What we know:
It is built from 7 helices and no strands.
Amino acid sequence: MQRYLSLLPFLVLVLGGGLLIGYATLPGAWYASLVKPSFNPPNWIFGPVWSLLYVLIAVAGWRTWLRDPTGAAMKIWGVQLILNFLWSPTFFGAKMIGLALLVIGFLLASSLMFIVSAWNRDRLSGWLFVPYAAWVAFATLLNASLLWLN
């Protein structure tokens, strides 16, 4: 039971942190004024998708921490979380689309690195990151398209 209680700080950090940052940097009039690509999803989809992804990220981080709290996979997990939390303030807060593209590019790379790093030791943690990496790849394309169009 205590093992599962140790998941709680991961959920609070990742889901709570992600939701707080998302709320603090809600898309406003500036984002609404941007020219968007035809594949831009409706705004309402981002909250549910990110909430689910944050739970998957937290579980993967928790499982990795249980196996090796100071190992390479855990360090990569931490880096990707920092990059994840930096993107919204960079894009929506600072309105720096180009810098946000750089941040999300590193986020995508670190997410893929986590999958590779975790794969042999805890395949489930690697799999938990696959939907996240796919969404970040899509978000990278969206970010690049917004830079191109604006």
